[in-house]
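re the bet — no i am not wrong, look at it urself. input seq straight from the record:
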Amino acid sequence: MAAANKAQLVSLFEFARQRIVQSMELRQCPHAGFYNPVDDACTFCHQGMECVWMNHNDQLVSLEEKSISELRQQLLMAVDFIDSNLSPYHLSRRQCQCENCQWLQQVQSVLAATE
C-alpha cells in the first residue's frame, strides 16, 4: 500500500514543476535556475524558493527514493506556491474547474489518503 501511495504522490509533481518553471524568469540568472547557496545572487534573488524547490524536485531527482513524508512536505510547498499565484476569482475553488484548482483538489485528496 505504501508503494501505491508514494506513486500517487510522485505523479503530482509534474504539474507543479511545469507551473513553477513557467513562473520563473531565468534570462538574468547566472546559474540557469540551479540554486547556489553560497552565491549572493541566489541568496537575495526573488525566485530563491522556486529554484530551491526545483533543485530538490526536478526530473533529475529520483522522487521514488524520497520518503512519503518528504514527498508530502515538498507537495505542500508546491500547493502554497500555486495557491498564492491564483487570482482572486478563485475564491470558490470547489466549483472552479481550471487546471490549477483541479490539481489542488487532487493533491488534497491524495494527501488525505496518505496520512
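see?? The mean pLDDT is 87. told u. also Helices lie at 2-11, 13-23, 40-43, 48-57, 68-84, 99-113. so pay up
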